[in-house]
Amino acid sequence: MAPTDDIRAKFGRFRILVVGRANAGKTTLLQRVCNTTGRPEIFDREGKKIDAAVVQSSVDRGYHNIENELVFGSNIDFIFHDSCGFEAGGEEEFKNMKTFVLERASTTKLKERIHAIWYCIPMDEYHRAITKAEERFFSECNTSSVPVIAVFTKFDALWDDAYGQLKESGLTRAECKKMAPDRAKEIFANMKIWDRLCDTQYPPKDFVCLAEMDTGNADCGPLLEGTTGALGEETMQMLLISTQRTNLAHCIKYAVNRYIH
Prior knowledge:
- The protein has helices at residues 4-11, 26-33, 52-60, 91-106, 132-140, 156-168, 173-190, 193-198, 221-231, 234-241, 248-260, and strands at residues 14-20, 41-43, 49-50, 69-72, 75-82, 116-122, 148-153, 206-209.
- By secondary structure, it is α/β, with parallel strands linked by helices.
- It has a single domain, classed as 3-Layer(aba) Sandwich (Rossmann fold), CATH 3.40.50.300.
- Strands 3-2-4-5-1-6-7-8 form an eight-stranded mixed β-sheet.
- Strand 6 (116-122), helix 5 (132-140) and strand 7 (148-153) form a beta-alpha-beta unit.
- The radius of gyration is 19 Å and the shape is globular.
- The protein starts with a helix and ends with a helix.
């Protein structure tokens, strides 16, 4: 197995396309992954820094460039791309996103390849978790060898419903609070959201449910572990592991599993 430095020299930084509605909590998620509360710096495809105000002005006018690279100073080993646009129903944006995925999944320029896609679905609107945007993405967007992880954000919104159900059953507040997270998982399973995604033409490889990303209790470990497992190829797994400056537990878990298997 090639050393991490050799892998970096060949493949560059770990590159992720983030997909999801405007209220899906994408920015908060990326901040947690990179252990920061700051905003990312934005670069064009050539690596030239772009003024954030200029980017926002373009977004306000309805234009968004998926080619732009988002990099957080707290962890420059990640490069993120935001699909912002097609979820609102824009035909051109959807075509641009599909073209981007196909090109970046197979480009011979290895440092420009995307390695994973995180599709964020907010659970504070769980009654409409799967909209036409999700249906279209998973039925029409062939991501080739790039694994897609369905990321159910704001999962703590389900805790509130779970708490209410438990309270109606006569349990104490303390009991309800303790049992709500597990009951929320049952509610989620009964909604068959994951089953629906698995029945699509191009289903995601895995899913994770993330709660309290806007608090100090935020834990991105499950997302990083799920992504590592979905990558399949050990070289790409090593590239992702090399980004983990703060998540020592994830690195140790990967190393132990690799040793066992």
